[in-house]
Amino acid sequence: MQWLQRALLLLAIMLWPAQAPGELSWLSTDWIVTCEPDVPDWPNDPLCDDESAVGVAAITRSGLEQASVWFKDLGFHGPDVETVSRSYRARVSDTVTDGALGLYFSGLKELYVNSTYYFAIARGETEAERRTTAGLQIAGMGAMVHELFHAIQHGYQPGEAFDSIEHDWIWEGTAHAVERVWLEQNDLHQEALFRPRRWDVPLDRPVDALDAYATSRFWHWVGREIQSPGDIAYLQDVFENDLDRRRGLDGVDLALRRFRTGGLYALYPEFVARALKSKWRRLQYASVPQQPITLSADSPDASVEWTGARVEPIASNAHSVPITLPTEDALGVVVSLDSNAPDELHLIVNGRLASDTGPRDVHTMT
Fold it and tell me: Which of 160, 163, 176 is nearest to 210 (CA)?
């Protein structure tokens, strides 16, 4: 009989706290949406009338107003975006967005959406084409909420950290998580819009822009795990901290300590353990070295050694250890971790933290 045990090692370096920012109160939850000259048939096209029953401007306005009520009710500060009287303003432009479904410019305080998502509604001659355009429509509706949340983030963090690519694991990751929650609550969620992520890559050091978005799986999981209202209200605590130093790790850890002893360095190992049980588990590591061992009553001890293996901070490595047991004997299996940093590593076996039932570096199976 053969048991497959997967041991995952997580390196966590403790950091220390800090504090920060400011706030913007909500003027209202009303929006005005206007089309830029590059939108087809501007300015006479009724689709650009945000007070009409249909059209890209009206649909965008409705979506932004619904999302604004949601954010306000959850306690978030208002967005740092241009206003007209006591209404916020968004613009529809296919040129400015340049292929993106939405953009927020913090310096100009301007929020743009692309009209493509609206004109994709119910288009396509085949079922496959209609599914594709439906996906575009849903992505566009999520994008406007995503960009609105960037404007809200900027209200908390108007400094250099907001425009720093090194902080995209926070800004893009949390905005993508909010987008996901919004779509789920409105029965519009499509899993294909949310890519998996490799967890041997440090959480705070995504390999590219898309990888920064993919950290949303962590942020979303945290909200559910700590039972935060709307799954996202806790992000206010994150944004209210000083996120300038060390890619924001100090501030994130401090915020999460309000909800869980150990903060980021307690929650992240739990997240990795849960992630291994998801349908994306095979895509989460670049490679999984395998080394089988055989145990018997006469030879009950065996060890597997990976020399020179390095676990990056806020990341994990996976190893596959198929264990062969004699069918005639009922043996217990103890998996233990021997490393040069025992206080900075977590052992995870078959999606369970060793620390759930005992020492963080010893896991017992019977």
Answer: 176
247: left (phi over 0), alpha (psi -120 to 50) or beta: left
Query: Is 226 exposed, middle or buried, given 0-12, 13-18 or 19+ CB atoms closer than 10 A?
Result: middle
pLDDT tens digits, 176-194: 999 999 988 887 756 655 6
Which residues, at least 6 apart from 305, have a Cβ–Cβ distance to it below 8 Å? none
**Sign for the pseudo-dihedral over CA of 205, 76, 180, 235:** positive
59-108 pLDDT tens trace: 889 899 999 999 999 999 999 999 999 999 999 998 998 888 899 999 99
Under DSSP, is residue 320 helix (H, G, I), strand (E, B) or coil? strand
DSSP string of 213-253, one letter each residue = HHTHHHHHHHHHHTT-GGGTTTHHHHHTS---GGGGHHHHH
Count Cβ atoms below 10 Å from residue 282 Cβ, excluding itself. 9
CB 111 within 8 A of CB 61: no
- Dihedral sign (CA 200, 201, 204, 209): negative
